[in-house]
Amino acid sequence: MDISPARTADLAGVVNVEQRVFPEGPYPGFVLYQHHHLSPDLLLVAREDEEVIGYALGAVSTRTDAGWVLSLAVDPDHRGKGAARRLLTALVEHLQAMGCREVLLHVAPANTTARGLYDKLGFRVVEHQDDALGPGGDRLLMKLTQSS
Ligand SMILES: CC(C)(COP(=O)(O)OP(=O)(O)OC[C@H]1O[C@@H](n2cnc3c(N)ncnc32)[C@H](O)[C@@H]1OP(=O)(O)O)[C@@H](O)C(=O)NCCC(=O)NCCS
Questions:
Q1: DSSP structure class, residue 26
Q2: What pLDDT score does 148 carry?
Q3: What's the alpha-carbon Rg for the chain, to the nearest Å?
Q4: Which residues in the chain show pLDDT less than 70?
Q5: Ligand 1: does its nearest atom lie under 6 Å from the Cβ of 128?
Q6: What distance in angstroms lies between residue 111's CA and the mean position of ligand 1's atoms?
Q7: Structural domain of 14
Q8: Four-residue CA torsion sign, 33, 35, 39, 43
Q9: Quick one: which of 123, 136, 140, 143 could link to 118 by a disulfide (CB 3.0–4.6 Å)?
């Protein structure tokens, strides 16, 4: 498995993973393409035999020195072999290298799989935000602070 910034040729695969993982409300493909244009180093893919099997998308706040994990998704046929852990670790390292002293993310309270991964990588719940993503869209705000 190879983890690296997405190439333009990977974007169709990223969109495919997004649609398979979040069929009820995927990011539109053009949003992912635009993120790639804006911050190509913050869209990472996991590839196996040239196939995109997962991706992680980050962003940097323009108001604070915080980095954000906007999305993390691994194709259902390729889970449980460390792709998400490696994607998230690489994204966090990249954000920290850019000067982000903390990395934030939102996760659904019921998403115990993702929360288990975030816990293991040192993220801690700092706030329960009711309706963070609109009515019924409660989210936990989790934060990883860089150890100095
Ligand atoms: C969450 C997700 C990205 C994990 O992807 P993955 O590649 O299977 O995860 P990994 O193999 O790297 O596993 C990393 C950790 O995740 C947790 N995890 C993974 N699969 C799990 C499962 N079935 N049950 C419980 N915990 C699990 C474990 O803590 C695991 O650590 P371990 O290997 O030391 O046990 C994947 O399940 C997914 O795409 N889910 C849907 C989208 C989603 O929820 N994204 C996050 C939104 S905030």
A1: P
A2: 61
A3: 15
A4: 148
A5: no
A6: 10
A7: 2-145
A8: negative
A9: 123
